[in-house]
User: Fold DNA-binding transcriptional regulator, MarR family from Frateuria terrea.
Amino acid sequence: MKKTKPDTIDTLSGGELGFLVSAVRSTIWSSIEAELQPLDITAAQFVVFNSIALGKGRTIGEFCRLLGYDSGAMTRLLDRIEKKGLVRRVANPEDRRSFLLELTPESKALFPQAKRRVQTVFKRLLAGFDEAQAAALKLALEQLLANAARTS
Assistant:
């Protein structure tokens, strides 16, 4: 009797996908942490800066969703960044009970350096990929996110 090799979808569905995604996320996060350490900012702080700069986040709720933090953890992170003088809270004109975050002149000056360092990490991680492989990876990750959005 000939043994058949399990197909990739069965293997990934058996837990391998979770292990791989978790390992990739952990590797990315620790690589970014190491690269940003000379600038005295963390990966989470960079996510906040980048989100503000790209217009993808300005409220605690938006940052909670981006980082997967609860509001208490997010508030503590924002307090640390604000204490460093890298973000400031401003009144939210649409909701007087909340505030928006904006970059300070210090973080605006620091952000380009941090962004270059993070891009260096991603370029290292993508070493050996050709354009077609990189496009396929992007498409696969987008499909995973779309599937997750449909099932949640």
